Amino acid sequence: MPLQGALAAVAYAGVALAALRVVLSYKSAVYAVRRLWRCADEWAQAYQYHEVPRFGCDGAENPLFRKASAYVAALPSLEDADAASVLLSSASRTNGGLSLHLGPGHTARDAFQGARLAWTNAGSERLVLRVRRHDRTRVLRPYLQHVESVADEMEQRRRDLRLYLANTRGGWASAPFTHPATLESVAMDPELKARVRTDLESFLKGRAYYHRLGRVWRRSYLLYGPPGTGKSTFAAAMARFLGYDVYDLDLSRAQHGGDDLRALLMRTTPRSLILVEDLDRHLLEQQQHNLLGFMDGVASCCGEERVMVFTMRGGKDGLDAAVLRPGRLDVHIQFTLCDFEAFKALASNYLGLRDHKLYPQVEEGFHAAGARLSAAELGEVMIANRASPTRALRTVITKLQNASGAAPARHSATHRRNTSWSGAVQQQWEEQPAEADEAAGDGAPPACGVVFGKDAPPMRELKKLYGLIRIRSRREGSGVAPFEGDAHGPPTPGNHDRER
What we know:
Residues 217-339 form the AAA+ ATPase domain. By secondary structure, this protein is α/β, with parallel strands linked by helices. It has helices at residues 2-24, 26-44, 63-73, 136-158, 190-204, 207-213, 231-242, 259-266, 279-285, 288-302, 321-324, 340-351, 359-367, 375-384, 389-406, 408-411, 426-429, 434-440, 457-478, 493-499; strands at residues 47-53, 85-88, 98-101, 107-112, 115-121, 126-132, 162-166, 172-176, 218-224, 245-249, 272-276, 306-312, 331-334.
């Protein structure tokens, strides 16, 4: 009897420990159940296996092996695989140079058009693609084309970009394109930035779509606004996002009917961004019909897979509608001077600030008569005072006071929503009707580089009034900080805390 009680106690203890282990390692248990289910499902299915060797029968390298290897290394499922090889490569620019690769005997899974596929490293420089037998006819060829397309795009983005300038011999001289701007670092309205990103991604994947429509695979953008608002920087960020070389094209070469210009365009390569700056100045200095012919004829004279970016220092009011029509300029983006929201984004990038005790004074300066500063001007102030965020903010406050006193009426005009979209995404990003603009009133202040209204006028005005009352009450209670220099060191989390 005592022996039976001891055995029962041991059994209960074992069950309790097993239950405790399951509770403590719930995720492991779920993973184990899923793995068992996957094994049972794989055992019940009929598969076909396709080997992708590195070398062919003639000893030549198989290009598909290199592209498939790059594609598999980028699969999200590789991070969840049972095992993977971790390599450190100076060529990799992400994750500190660390990259995952499919080691011998390892398997990574993928999905395509509702079918489940798997890649296995069979060793001896061979990859094996497994696909369900009833899916092979439907997805095999499209999937391999998808693998090739994605690998080509990844290779294009990894390569070193080049900047091309026209030389005196009618050709192009090149240098490494080292501009560090990215879409993530550009200070602009997040919603519009997402739209631009989506539009660029749709263009990258649009070869078959454009060909099905019988249209040349290219897209054109107009960036317009005052100097210093970030138009050229945004063009550089677009090129880096696309992984395209940049051709800086001087329209003054079109003075003899555009023959020299067309010859230059013939020498550009696919996957390039062709930048044409100061379009409005060239429209005034040259015959307009020559430039219009150049903008229309670029598709036929320099091939496909190009993005054309035109910049203008002024507005669109004085331009002929024929210049602005889709086909010549597909997407229009207005760049404006910075408001307080854009200033905070710049302060975060340049100074590492999320908040500061002087922010209420800066906000009041932006609200005072609609004062605005350019992104270039704000950036220079922050670079010059990067060792002292407080001194940088005080300098900005002084500049805002001078700007509001110099031309209050010019900046107080209502901003209109001037971003227009056409082409494949016209229905999503079409220009706001005039009636909607009039109903929107002031709206939210535009972010740096983009005019984009959000709030209705009553709510926005109440927010402004409340903010001014709060700012004035703070100033009456604590006084205005003097504009002397700051002894704090470089911007660190500790320094920021002290300044707040």
